Amino acid sequence: MELRIDEAHGDMDAVDLYEDLREDDMLEILGLMHHPRDAVYTSYSCSTKCYSVKDQMNNLYCSFGVAPIEGTNIGSAWLLGTRRLPTIKKFFLKHSKERMEGLLDGFDYLTNFVMKSNTLSYRWLKWLGAEFNDCHLDGYMSFILERK
């Protein structure tokens, strides 16, 4: 299977992502008191850098990006996947580290929250070198990603 990482097309990719959003990502969004549809569309529209992983048939596997946190030099990193995402682990791990370096450009560091039970996201962030901290949100941890 041939995969590629392209700049995301927010309007088109958002529809595909929302319709096939991974359950763990949906639960994480709901736990943060957001509607998944709003979170998906806002992730694309607020991001200064945003990418999608697709195959040759244009099937979406995930999208990820970074949105600036107003008044700071800090970025809010995000990744939302479809139910297909677990089928491309090797490709995603190989290419996500280099893309993360690009997301860091222009920011001191990246941060956000991850639900403790979202094991796929947690393990990926840990593999990228994220540092985790308890936060005020029950069942969640905050993370920080810095240039290594």
Q: Approximately how much beta-strand content do the residues carry?
A: 25-35%
Main β-sheet, spatial strand arrangement: 1-2-3-4-5-7-6
Number of strands: 7
- Characterize the largest beta sheet: strand count, sense, and whether it forms a barrel: 7 strands, mixed
Low-confidence stretches: none
The level 1 CATH classification is Alpha Beta
Helix percent band:
25-40%
Characteristic key phrases:
globular; alpha+beta; 148 residues; Aminopeptidase; 38% helix
Task: Give the arrangement of secondary structure elements.
Blueprint: E1 3-7, H1 10-19, H2 23-31, H3 36-46, E2 49-55, E3 60-68, E4 74-81, H4 89-104, E5 109-115, H5 119-128, E6 131-134, E7 140-145
Parallel strand pairs: 4-5
Antiparallel strand pairs: 1-2, 2-3, 3-4, 5-7, 6-7
What's this model, at a glance?
This protein has 148 residues and is an alpha+beta fold.
Describe, in plain words, how this protein is organized in 3D.
The protein has 148 residues and is of the alpha+beta class. It has one domain: Gcn5-related N-acetyltransferase (GNAT) (Aminopeptidase, 3-Layer(aba) Sandwich), CATH 3.40.630. Helices cover 38% and strands 31% of the residues. The protein is built from 5 helices and 7 strands. It has helices spanning 10-19, 23-31, 36-46, 89-104, 119-128; strands at 3-7, 49-55, 60-68, 74-81, 109-115, 131-134, 140-145. Strands 1-2-3-4-5-7-6 form a 7-stranded mixed sheet, with helices on both faces. Helix 1 (10-19) packs antiparallel against helix 3 (36-46). The chain is globular. The N and C termini lie far apart (31 Å). 36% of the residues are buried. The model has no long low-confidence stretch (mean pLDDT 94).
